[in-house]
Amino acid sequence: MLAKKLYTGSDHAGFDLRTRMVAHLRALGFEVDDLGTPSAESTDYPDWAAAVGRADLSGGRELVAVELEEVVGRRQQPPFRSNR
């Protein structure tokens, strides 16, 4: 069965992808709790991952999507995506 309720969140690097994904999912009839970040301004990814994790602990959603990108020195890691 396809999940109809989900949480999503991202850091600044995932902002554009997340906002497009949320709009698309809502157009398809999904109930999306978009937990941020509210802009593409630089921010720390742990804050947004924690917000989604805390919300997930409270229950009520069937799927969690997190878009994060971490830069370590000059090496850039690919986006991190998580669902339970």
In summary, what is this structure?
The protein is of the alpha/beta class. It has helices spanning 15-27, 45-57, and strands spanning 5-10, 31-34, 63-67, 71-72, 75-76.
What does this structure look like?
- With 84 residues, this protein is α/β, with parallel strands linked by helices.
- It has one domain (5-76): Sugar-phosphate isomerase, RpiB/LacA/LacB (Ribose 5-phosphate Isomerase B, Chain: A), CATH 3.40.1400.10.
- It is built from two helices and five strands; from the N terminus they run E-H-E-H-E-E-E.
- The protein has helices spanning 15-27, 45-57; strands at residues 5-10, 31-34, 63-67, 71-72, 75-76.
- A three-stranded parallel β-sheet has the order 2-1-3, sandwiched between helices. It has a two-stranded antiparallel ribbon with strand order 4-5.
- The longest helix has 13 residues, at 15-27.
- It is flat, with a radius of gyration of 13 Å.
- The model is unreliable at 71-80 (pLDDT under 50).
Which blocks of ≥5 consecutive residues have pLDDT under 50?
71-80
What shape does the CA trace take? flat
* Order of H and E elements: EHEHEEE
Largest sheet: 3 strands, parallel
Number of DSSP E strands: 5
Tell me the CATH superfamily: Sugar-phosphate isomerase, RpiB/LacA/LacB
Number of separate domains: 1
Main CATH class:
Alpha Beta
